[in-house]
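pasting for ref
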Amino acid sequence: MSEVTATNQITTPVASADAEPTRWTARWVILGLLPLILLAGVLALIVATDAGLGERTVPPIEELNVQRVTLPEPGRIVLDVVNDGPDPITIAQVMVDDAYWSYGIDGDGTLGRMDSATITLPYPWVEGEAHAIGIVSATGVVFDADVPVALESPETDSGTFARFALIGFYVGVIPVALGLLWYPFLRRLGGGAMQFILALTIGLLVFLAVDMFGEAQEIALGVPAVFEGSLLVPVIALLTFLLLMTIASRKGDTPRRGLAVAYRIALGIGLHNLGEGLAIGAAFALGEIGLGVFLIVGFTLHNVTEGVGIAAPILREQPRFINFVWLALLAGGPAILGVWIGGFVYSPLWATIFLAIGIGAIVQVVVEVTRIIAQSSEREGSPWLNWTTLGGVTAGIAVMYATALVVAG
């Protein structure tokens, strides 16, 4: 009897403990929601009473963000603006080249927090010249915008779409395809040379990630402050990296090889070229740069090395020809989409998001390629970080930097 009793005394609490967490009654649900309900009440009280500070007598805090300036036709300027501050803004006047000018605006001219509006100016702008614009609020605050070089904005017709697509094809698809043509030559290299090429790929990708981070932070300056554009860049990049690492993780933490890694590299580079296309399209729409033969040659030279990086993981394989076509389109095709978006519907917020996603994707690919190098070095009984891999990484960064200088020049 004592043994049975002892057994019952031991097993009964365990069964009771196992059953307890499953009792989700209304009382437990209410207890879980109670802090959220009270928090909502506190926040509502703070907003309703201005945190107990009473009626504010200081001037309103006004911030107006000019998202885009377009010149759709001769004699007309269009501005897309958004209220970026905590208080309403009433637009009272608009100046162009230090002279007040008539204008039209959506609604009554008063914008609440995060409200947007379109301002239309019937102004005789002069092609090729710069024009300064000032938007004056009812309290006298002036918000500046400018047209660096007056040039009629591209129309959304089939001809312009085709021309922009051709620009993206020149700077995106063609350079990557040319780089992939090195594949047969690279396959004949020895093991040490392949390690060097893989390390070269890491150098190329590291440079692209750093370059994209700088571009994203610069574009983020034009994002409405409420979105914290500068903070979005590292946060979205980190989340993208973690998401791709989660998708890529497999049993035993074995890295993907060959064609799968090549497609990932192409995707990361494609997101980079999307950002490049955004910049080209936006600049072309505003006439800030001339897209001449020298610029096309510069981008081709800068991006041709990307094809080498894509080919590096498949040097020990023999993919079908159609895979090379898809790799070139995946890496270079987004440049076409970027030129379209930049030329027609450019948004600093979405440009920042796309670039941040690209950074995370590229960093994840760097991890994958590093694993391949480490695993290969382990089989050979040598450290993965040696003079060959260090030289490859350095060479990759140096090549990208040198070609970037050509584009900048």
